[in-house]
Design brief:
The structure is a homodimer of 407-residue chains. With 407 residues, chain A is α/β, with parallel strands linked by helices. Chain A has two domains: 270 residues, Rossmann fold (3-Layer(aba) Sandwich); 105 residues, Rossmann fold. In chain A, helix 7 links the parallel strand 4 and strand 5. The longest helix of chain A is centred in the N-terminal third of the chain and has 16 residues. Chains A and B meet through helix 6, helix 7, helix 14 and helix 17 of A and helix 7, helix 14 and helix 17 of B.
Chain lengths: 407, 407
């Protein structure tokens, strides 16, 4: 099958910097926001009650010191980070094959989600025909959304085989070039550009207001770690490449529901898990790692730790982000925050590694493409504990929350 | 009944500036955001279909040219603009009576909403006891929220008489000073401080990027109008006072449901409407104007026009703000945007007044204090048309949307 097959860039920070130069005129510099309520919550031990029924029941709750910096990629163009990789892949194609040639061939991808919109937008920007293969059962609004970006939508069945058969036919007929959703160096490097921004924005925020930092920003650096959601691993591996050897650790967050934490389990077992079948509410994270992303993510010199959270953790975190931060996110976006707030393994690790000084952690909100109806469905049956925990934080708003926006 | 009774400030722009100096260390400088999708929608004529069944059915849809600038008071402390008036009122009390005296007496108000939280926070900041009278039927989360701000909650029945009886008893027993929710010069002047920020922030945004302006910002001014929701009228009158004689027009937006547009109707009839009984989803706007706010709002030298919107208009606008802008707001917050998008009287007026050049309009998002459950309830029965119209705008995202945040 045809794909982005030209010479791949090095998987290095300087390749990420070059990618950033290439795409930055096409993407938003999304804001980094801070929130006192959430940083306070992250720095408060969970109750013994909250740990009941979890694997940490009966243990002393961790007491880490954490300041949070939220990278709002939900405010990115098309509402998700995916435009970064899409623009990078498309611009590299143009560099390598010439605009006319790429316009003649077109590009193709299969996705019913944010990647489809990203590729459609990037292609439209350069008047390149974009073929998007979507399952027949996709929601009408997603089909309409992709079409409104000027893409040609093709329908297929829902399985990987059915999708790929349609893609293959399109390639055969048109010569279109495949832009894969995550498992390609150009995509990984493109997604990693957000890490450069986070680093610079947190530096600026802390320079302007040292109180935002866990330790007043006097360590010579300001950012200690970044945590991102992990589905196919494009964003996680990209961030890990960008921050490799900077002293800033990169962590992974996944949903554990029905084995959705395939990256974590694979790394633990020492072998990539090649298929995942989960219906987690974090629907952007239902995919397994690919060969390329596995290589980076399974290397502990790149990704310092992989963690997972339950569906309830995701819902609790999502409620906090919507109702307290007033920020509209999709469920996949909050698994990083959920890990920080509710995963005791992560919290104990931070307590131990960060010590008295604490850590400043960058948390990627990956996207905001959901609907009122989808949220309604997710919260239709709210367990007691969730509602109670969320209420306990009502109104504990502090100063210095929203103005801290580094553009 | 005791109330803020000391010498009132002049109702002038310079009084608003003085108020701003007094409170600015206690409030957030909330961001002003722009959004290409919504500005484009505002500058696109409604369809004949959309006007069916409205009072404008069969008329040629207006074709105004509008650029929108959203003042995100949903990101204000306690999640709403109400802290501005509350801090101003409390600080003036301290100036007039001395901190010790105010601490001895305490403050009191009746509210189940944002004003209660605002007064509680302002009082707590200066270690002043705050008594908040809330209806027994208030939702537990609001009671918990008010208590978590350190306020003493007292319960009453739901009618104005029952509430005021409890307030009177508290004043009798403690000497507490009443901080009214809107109908007092100190409250109006305090809320008006947002207008100074909007003006400066829009200037800055347009200076940095003239493309954000309807006319490239070359008129000597950048902001043409501000539209705010109107309930009791504290915010509307405050903005009108702040922008009086600046050339920037101020407009009012109300829900029309069950006569919720009492300000508009009162101004039309030439007499204040003193009671309102509406269950509009814009629950912050269910109150009538007071004597003080009426004086300003009924004066067309202050408020240039009053408009109203339907419940469906509010829901449509709310969906756009949540799903497209990724901004979490309460229903009351979007009546200004709903007016701009759906009220043909307003749109025709802009087309006529603004002409070819168009207008830059500041739109106040007054607050974001709602819950997932409340939103679920509001959208439980979505009429066909609403869902369809919302879908039609999916993915029409442009460039330069989110980074334009003037802190």
């Amino acid at each position: 099958m045809g794909s982005i097959n030209a010479s791949s860039p090095q998987l290095t920070r300087s390749a990420v910097s070059a990618a950033h130069e290439l795409i930055k005129e096409h993407i938003h510099l999304t804001p980094v926001q801070t929130n006192t309520t959430l940083s306070t919550l992250a720095s408060t031990p969970q109750t013994a009650e909250a740990l009941k029924g979890t694997q940490w029941e009966g243990q002393t709750p961790a007491y880490p010191k954490i300041k949070l910096f939220f990278k709002c990629e939900n405010m990115q163009r098309i509402g998700a980070f995916k435009v970064r990789g899409a623009f990078h892949a498309v611009k590299r194609l143009i560099e390598e094959q010439g605009l006319e040639e790429v316009q003649r061939k077109g590009v193709v991808t299969h996705s019913s989600g944010n990647h489809a919109q990203g590729v459609a937008l990037a292609a439209r920007t350069f008047s390149i025909p974009a073929h998007i293969v979507m399952p027949t059962i996709s929601t009408p609004s997603k089909i309409a959304g992709t079409q409104s970006q000027g893409a040609i939508v093709h329908f297929s069945g829902s399985t990987a085989q059915e999708r790929e058969a349609v893609v293959a036919k399109i390639i055969e007929r048109t010569g279109a070039i495949l832009v894969p959703p995550y498992d390609h160096p150009n995509i990984m490097i493109g997604q990693g550009t957000m890490a450069l921004e986070i680093q610079a924005q947190v530096d600026e925020l802390v320079r302007n207001d040292p109180a935002l930092s866990a330790y007043g920003g006097e360590k010579g650096k300001t950012l200690d770690a970044v945590i991102t959601p992990c589905g196919g691993g494009g964003m996680l591996s990209g961030n890990a490449i960008a921050l490799h050897n900077t002293g800033i650790k990169v962590f992974s967050a996944e949903p554990s529901f029905q084995g959705g934490d395939d990256a974590r389990r694979g790394v633990e077992a020492g072998a990539r898990i090649e298929t995942v079948k989960t219906l987690t509410i974090a629907d952007g994270l239902r995919t397994p790692l690919g060969d390329w992303t596995w290589k980076i993510i399974s290397d502990s010199k790149y990704v310092a730790g992989l963690y997972s959270v339950t569906e309830e953790n995701i819902k609790d975190a999502m409620r906090l982000v919507l109702e307290r931060m007033k920020c509209f996110v999709e469920p996949s976006a909050v698994v990083g925050l959920a890990t920080i707030l509710y995963n005791e393994d992560f919290r104990k690790m931070v307590e131990k590694e960060a010590g008295e000084e604490g850590w400043n952690i960058g948390v990627v909100f990956s996207g905001g493409n959901t609907t009122i109806e989808a949220i309604t469905k997710i919260f239709a049956t709210v367990p007691e504990g969730v509602a109670k925990r969320a209420e306990g934080t009502v109104g504990k708003d502090g100063k210095k929350e929203v103005e801290n926006v580094a553009g």
